[in-house]
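Retro notes (design track)

What went well: tokenization of the new backbones is finally stable.
What didn't: we kept losing track of which sequence belonged to which structure.
Fix going forward: every design gets posted as structure first, then sequence, in one message. First example under the new rule, 89 residues:
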């Protein structure tokens, strides 16, 4: 048999999906909530919002750096202030 993964395994391994699921399940086992399915679902939603915020922060940081490179320091600082306000929401 070759080293090729089953398509389902490959899907779960993309974008670290398997790692997130494993971490979430370990939290469920550790916390032992009364309703583990509900707890796990809410935990996944929370992780999703964290990942979205981190992606937005990286995108905004890149934009600021790009503006700084273009000698637009004032514009970069204004954009940074606006982006920080967006992240806080």
């Amino acid at each position: 048999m070759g080293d090729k993964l089953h398509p389902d395994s490959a899907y779960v391994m993309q974008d670290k999906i398997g790692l997130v699921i494993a971490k979430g399940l370990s939290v469920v086992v550790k916390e032992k909530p009364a309703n583990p399915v509900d707890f796990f679902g809410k935990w996944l939603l929370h992780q999703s919002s964290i990942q979205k915020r981190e992606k937005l922060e990286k995108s905004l940081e890149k934009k600021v750096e790009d503006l700084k490179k273009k000698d637009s320091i004032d514009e970069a600082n204004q954009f940074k202030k606006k982006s920080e306000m967006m992240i806080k929401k």
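Added context from the reviewer: The first helix runs from residue 7 to 13.
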